[in-house]
Amino acid sequence: MHILFVTQYFTPEVGATQTRIHEFARACHRRGHRVTVLTEFPNHPHGRIAPEYRRRLVTRETLDGFTVLRVWVKASTDKTLWTRLAFYGSFAAMAAARGLTVRGRPDVVVATSPPLPVGLAGWLIARVRGAHFVLDVRDLWPAAVEAVGAVPRRAVLRVAGALEQFLYRRADRITAVTRGFVRHIRARVVDPERVLWLSNGAATDLFDPARVDPTLRTRLGLDGRFVVTFAGLHGMAQGLDAVLEAASRLQDRPEVVFVFIGDGPAKARLMASAARLDLANVRFLPTVPPAEAALYLTASDALLVPLRPHPAFDTFVPSKLYDFLACARPVILMVDGEAREILEASGAGVFSPPGSADGLAKAVLGLLETPETDRRRMGAQGRAYVLANYTRAERSARLVALVEAMGVPVDRGAGRPA
Known about the structure:
The protein is of the alpha/beta class. It folds into two domains: 226 residues, 3-Layer(aba) Sandwich (Rossmann fold); 174 residues, Rossmann fold (3-Layer(aba) Sandwich). 41% of the residues lie in helices and 18% in strands. The protein has 15 helices and 16 strands. A hairpin with a 4-residue loop joins strand 15 and strand 16. Helix 3 runs parallel beside helix 5. The protein is globular.
């Protein structure tokens, strides 16, 4: 089969989307299928296109044995409503144009959302080329956008809601990363059996407690400290201001230090806030490749998974939760709902109310005062739980099985399965 993945974000960009689709593409290729990934010129999260892609419209590369087609996108370092709309719209237009001319008719088009316009591009390619269309839902747009207040104009939200419904109705299959997302989507379609749960998972070979750098803490000046680490996108949804407030409350406990690894639109503001508050117990480190990030995680005493408080986020499970559990370190979770159910089932950490600086400070002190043997037990339980339930390899195998099951002819006249 020829499988075309359409995704705005992809390797070498770092993030959950990039990792999910890369693993899916690699799994399909290893099964002997022809795989093409259609994506943007790398620019996320800074909004600056990498120098080797500038002054070009399209490129063609080979990665892990499959083809990667990249297209120009209207990237911007200024993150406003209009620059974001231009960013999403330009990729959708370029991806659709390039997808309609891709060599060899795809049998299945897998488009991953958000952003929603990626789904529209994927549907158009599938419709014109006579392929099956799979919509992979990683976040509920526009619900997530509204939750962080990123789109103040109600008209934009209404258009996004209409596009969401349009894609749900026309996808041959819909995969969603949480059970809450599945329930949300099934309530909006007439044939709910099309909606399948396909969660994220951990790369347990990469995020492995056996992978350690014994000199890392010394080089960072963290010997003898209780290290609480957040690694990932510094954005609006993560609610990292509460983490800084918790750090402020713990300044009288010099043994505690918070480490932020990564980048994003909120990082400069967070660093300015930490400087203004004179927080000596906070460190900001740049984005590093996943293999290096794993070393920072295993060098930590506790790992932090936060989201800002909003009912919509109760259906979310941050993908980093799986990787952090795989590192066999206690997790402090600031996300309620389904994510909390996973943490409590694993017995691998503690819950702190989203957005509560006081709650986070208490959780950190609670773990600090927990005997090291008990913390090790919590970490071991987390890794065992992920190995039994949420490995990335097993999730990729599910996607491959789904795609292969769709390998029946498509009625090109209707653009739907015959």
